[in-house]
Design goal:
This protein is an alpha+beta fold and 340 residues long. The protein contains ten helices and 14 strands. The two termini are 24 Å apart.
Length: 340
């Protein structure tokens, strides 16, 4: 089992990227060799799409392009290869999984939890970073090594976010990769209003997400952000919000793509997640209980049902600027604390 060591970043976005690439370069090279579909990447369709990703990031988040350049310098790979890696989920229209929820309030304040369900023994894909100074708001976050994503984050303003993938046959060629959208929120947003404004102003390309966001002052919401726009499916004011891998009732309901067995798994998890949110005592200990759950139907900590496995989990306490990380299956790995 890997230890969830944190990589410390500071300075300009390019300097942060260089530190990132130097710290985990070997893992970056290993993962890129496994996941990026190089056999199709030079096709007439993929290469122009990659050029559009670069143009769109230049328009909406130029700092992330500078960071990608730094990662390439730090790990010794080409900038083009690193850009392709951060874009491949959207360009290839890939679909991953995961589960997320938040209590709007508890004795510990708002609490958010999230799993990553990308496969068995995939701990190397979950790297923790912390920025206490430099460009972008101070933050602690998880991302795949070598990317400029924000898979699950907490920033110094007390904004916390994590989510679950959705599937949808739609693409907005003017958008940014959706995982990069999470980095934009992390780097810039200091209020609920700024989160919603950013989602309104910056389109996403593909890889729609069922996102859960909470904030230190109290409150949580769940939303679906897609190439066709953002829908707040569980508004502020509800005691808890939950997210799995299918669309809620609303403008995108019924648009899900993917295998039916995975959608069935998602519906079962959502039903169980709601049950746990209503019956488990809210707080940090309760969230750990939720994300180590092994219910017969809809277990949150997944152990191979429909070939789905949990490989990491996170519990965030915005009021304390605290993130707990389980690197591996949550029920076995245990949670280690990291303070922003």
């Amino acid at each position: 089992m890997l230890e969830p060591a944190v990589v410390e970043l500071s300075g300009s976005f390019r300097e942060q990227g260089r530190q990132h690439g130097e710290a985990v370069g070997a893992t970056i090279k290993e993962i890129i060799a496994e996941v990026v579909p190089w056999d199709t990447w030079t096709s007439d369709k993929a290469e122009p799409m990659l050029a559009r990703v670069e143009d769109n990031l230049k328009r909406f988040a130029p700092g992330l392009l500078e960071e990608l350049e730094g990662i390439a310098e730090g790990c010794g790979l080409s900038y083009r290869k690193i850009l392709a890696y951060s874009a491949f989920v959207d360009v290839s229209m890939a679909h991953q999984w995961c589960t997320a929820m938040a209590w709007s309030e508890s004795p510990d304040g708002p609490v958010l939890g999230k799993t990553n369900d990308i496969g068995r023994h995939q701990e190397k894909y979950h790297q923790l970073f912390r920025r206490r100074s430099g460009e972008g708001l101070p933050a602690i976050w998880f991302t795949w090594p070598g990317t400029v994503w924000g898979g699950c984050f907490l920033n110094a303003a007390g904004i916390a976010s994590g989510g679950a993938s959705l599937g949808m046959k739609a693409r907005n060629e003017a958008g940014v990769p959706s995982n990069c959208m999470l980095r934009i929120l992390m780097d810039r947003c200091d209020s609920l209003e700024s989160v919603l404004r950013a989602l309104d102003e910056v389109p996403v390309m593909h890889h729609p997400q069922h996102n859960v966001t909470c904030w230190a002052e109290g409150g949580a919401m769940a939303l679906e952000f897609t190439p066709e726009g953002t829908f707040v499916c569980q508004p502020v004011g509800t005691p808890y919000v939950v997210a799995t891998n299918h669309f809620c009732e609303g403008p995108f309901a019924g648009r899900d793509t993917g295998e039916e067995r995975h959608l069935t798994n998602s519906r079962r998890r959502l039903a169980n997640l709601r049950h746990l949110a209503e019956t488990v005592e809210p707080g940090v200990a309760g969230m750990v209980r939720v994300f180590t759950d092994h219910a017969d139907s809809g277990g949150i900590c997944q152990h191979g049902a429909e070939d789905m496995w949990s490989s990491a989990a996170y519990v965030i306490v915005p009021r304390e600027r605290l993130m707990l990380v389980a690197q591996g299956q949550p029920c076995e790995a245990g949670f280690e604390e990291f303070v922003l």
